[in-house]
Specification:
alpha/beta; 4 domains; 4-stranded parallel sheet; binds N-carbamoyl-L-aspartate; Rossmann fold; globular; 5-stranded parallel sheet; 16 helices; disordered C terminus
Amino acid sequence: MLRLPKFDVVSIDDLSIGEIERVFVLADQFTAQLEAGERLRIADGMVMATLFYEPSTRTRLSFESAAHRLGGCVISSASMDASSAAKGETLADTVRVVSGYADLIVIRHPYDGAARVAAEYARCPIINAGDGSREHPTQTLCDLYILRRKKGHLRGLTVAICGDLKFGRTVHSLIYALARFGANVVAVPNRGMAVPDYVLARLAAERNYSFSSVSISELKSLAGGLDAMYLTPSAPHQMALFTGEMPIIKAAEPAQGPAALDAFYVTRFQKERRSEGERELADYVRFDARALKTSRTQEAVVMHPLPRTDELAYELDADPRAVYFEQAAAGVPVRMALIAWLLENAGRSRKRTAGAAPLILKAENAPPCSNANCITRHEIRYLRPRFKPAPAASHSELCLRCEFCEHELKVQYVGHARSRRYYRFDESLLGYVRQWLEDGTLMVVETVKQAEEAGYEPYRRGPQREIMNAQEITRAVEAIAAQIIRDLPDLARVSVVGIVSHGAALAVRLCEIIERQTGVDPVRGAGRVSRL
Ligand code: NCD
């Protein structure tokens, strides 16, 4: 039996830049060989299984064509409704069984994080062909391949990504990849369809990358042919990322005029990912030839992962800048290249550089993932929610990131399962929280009611104890201020200093009271040290 390496492609970030470039080299070779009508046998004996739990035309057929054209063969279920999934078989069981029949599994699934689960349970490599609204890495390979072919390079390009950026999985993978290749992204979401926070959090944490968003009304003015709209990528991320060659398009200053766009990536309204939605569809922007008429857009290619509905005018099809059918056609050589790359790596194993091992919250100690479409909310018989601590915006919130769908869960109460005590979270508890996560004793809940229903009692000492209530604090601060006013004759020479993490707020309150009562602001008089 052929042994492909257990290299799963769940996210586009599972492939390094070097690996993506190798795939492109192979794709160029296959394009030439296909054109020359060569018959290839490099995947002779390979069996690829396609498990598509959602509709597909391009991804599935191009994968299947790719396997056949390499000399391999394909097994598939006509529809997952015709498989044991319809009898209630879990995803984990299905992929365990199918990895006994195939050397490679290509899977598409409606739930976010499903491909990661498949990768954990299958013995053979898993390629994600779209998991819910999370990612679609092989579509990104096709997108990048065509974009690079059209523009000669990726670094420094400016790509406007339009439409449903919330649920469009092709968009998420594409943004991660463009960030890595040093391209600028201008997000042009339809109303209420902005790039989700978990995507932005990954970009910020792993790539030091951020980008500007352009509102739909601005897009409308662009679509209306106006040249006045100022589009600028928030370029500083690139400066931080690339210390070597600088991107071609630098942070455009308004004085220099707007940056040119290299590509529009138009996407479909993902109606199947919403329960309501027709209302939003009504103002979904339609992209037509007018958008290419401005001086900044003349060189832009128009991309789309397809299928299109009404968002992309048919009149564009004849324009040489419309490259969406080329993207679709690239599906075969690019997916052949991905399979060939796996074959090239047969026998190798992968060193995972990804951070620390996940910290797992026991099922009985964790609320469900905050994302209703997360696989952990559906495959409940065997899957446990799994979170990693993530940076939080507020000191009084514990932020946990789901290992499967990456959505964040923000909790205010944490508990210790052995002592059955709960605490209102504050930053000073972080060390304990990590420790409890590691030894499996952390419990998190969103409300006191939930904690008490689970049999936990409030922790009465330490950070939980109320030493003074708000009124008492106000009275005490006023008394201290009164004492300062009374005892210090020259308030203009007084500095009030507090420690940044704790006393600073108190210092500011004292200064405010002193200023209110005397007209002298001791802080300003004393310089910066006291504005903590
Ligand atoms: C996309 C998908 O399935 O996410 N299609 C594709 O694979 N080319 C895009 C879409 O359905 O809108």
